[in-house]
Amino acid sequence: MSRVCELTGKKAMVGNNVSHAMNKTKRKFDANLIKKRFYIPEEDKWVTLKVSTSALKTINKIGIAAALKEAKSKGFLK
Questions:
Q1: 3-state helix, strand, coil in the chain (%, to 5)
Q2: Which residues form a coiled coil (predicted)?
Q3: What is the pTM of this model?
Q4: Roughly what angle, to the nearest 10 degrees, separates helices 64-74 and 53-62?
């Protein structure tokens, strides 16, 4: 999977570059992704995930186990 958050499913958006003369050309807004290792104490193992920074804030708030459970229920993880 390239440039897609594994927990939230965020991916690139399409928009326009707009010049001062209002000329518009297509561009891509990539998701702000970070490759990060997380320790899951329930399973006693490390997991490497490519997550967006907003998903990282969610993990810090609710915990990795709850975030993985929520992602599985939404169908982003297998």
A1: 25, 35, 35
A2: none
A3: 0.82
A4: 120
Q: Which whole number is the average pLDDT over 46-63?
A: 95
Eight-state DSSP code of residue 3: S
Please give the Cα distance from 38 to 46 (Å, whole number): 6
- Label the pairing between strands 24-29 and 33-40: unpaired
- How does 41-72 read in b/e, with b if 16+ C-beta sit within 10 Å? eeeeeeeebbbbeebbebbeeeebeebbeebe
Q: Which whole number is the average pLDDT over 58-76?
A: 92
Asked if the 13-74 domain carries CATH number 2.30.170.40, the reply is yes
The encoded tokens of residue 35 equal: 């490759």
The whole-number pLDDT of residue 41 equals 92
Interatomic CA distance for residues 61 and 3, integer angstroms: 23
